[in-house]
Specification:
By secondary structure, the chain is of the alpha/beta class. It has helices at residues 70-83, 100-106, 121-130, 147-150, 171-174, 194-211; strands at 3-9, 17-21, 36-38, 43-44, 59-65, 87-91, 115-118, 135-138, 145-146, 157-162, 179-182. Helix 1 (70-83) crosses helix 2 and helix 1 (70-83) packs parallel to helix 6.
């Protein structure tokens, strides 16, 4: 397990403080070039224990349709691993784990999250629906309802779809969805980054239904 040191700038007018790997050869402040000094004992970063609170919520699969950013895909795969997502379907131009940029944010989750690729998301949704899997889209618009309101009727298994960062979910997929759900937005912006929004949605879907009856 990696260990870290906290270094602090010796310049009283700067005192920049930041962590570095214990064996890092950093001697001068990146802000003012003054000498650095360790200010605490080496420590290991904290980790949540895997499986500490296994949700009794639905089995969720995800579909990423025409995402542009490999970094968004990596972030989503990392969140998918944490939430116990059953399978990730990557469609269209969505980068797959063979893209080295996915690893930058997935941090090895790309190796443990089951995934597959399909060139046409609309056709894949048709196949999954024919196999009995309900489909929800995470999207805005007049037909969207808040995700929090939809949690009382989450089916035992579910496919949830995220679309292109600019264009949103393909209309051919939206027309097949049983529900369109959105996250409440209280500020000036009308949407979140797709990786942030999808991470929130995956955790709500996996964990929230298990606690509603408690």
């Amino acid at each position: 397990m990696a260990t870290f040191l906290i270094l602090e700038c010796s310049n009283p007018g700067c005192r920049m403080r930041f962590p570095v790997p214990e064996r890092a050869l950093i001697q001068t402040c990146p802000r003012c070039a003054s000498p650095l000094q360790p200010v605490d004992l080496p420590f290991a970063s904290a980790r949540v224990q895997s499986g500490a609170d296994v949700p009794a919520g639905p089995q969720v699969e995800i579909l990423l349709d025409n995402l542009r950013s490999a970094f968004n895909v990596g972030s989503i795969l990392r969140a998918a691993d944490g939430a116990g997502i059953r399978h990730a379907h990557l469609c269209g131009i969505t980068p797959t784990p063979e893209n080295p940029k996915v690893a930058k944010t997935a941090l090895s989750a790309e190796f443990v999250t089951p995934w597959s690729y399909a060139p046409n998301g609309v056709l894949l949704v048709e196949q999954l629906r024919a196999g009995g899997l309900p489909v929800w889209a995470l999207e805005g618009g007049a037909n969207a309802e808040p995700l929090t309101a939809a949690l009382s009727a989450v089916p035992p298994a579910l496919l949830i779809v995220a679309g292109n960062e600019l264009a949103g979910v393909d209309p051919g997929i939206l027309s097949q969805c049983e529900k369109v759900v959105s996250l409440p937005m209280l500020g000036f912006k009308r949407s979140l980054n797709v990786a942030v929004a999808f991470g929130i949605a995956m955790y709500w879907l996996r964990f929230a239904p298990a606690f509603q009856d408690r």
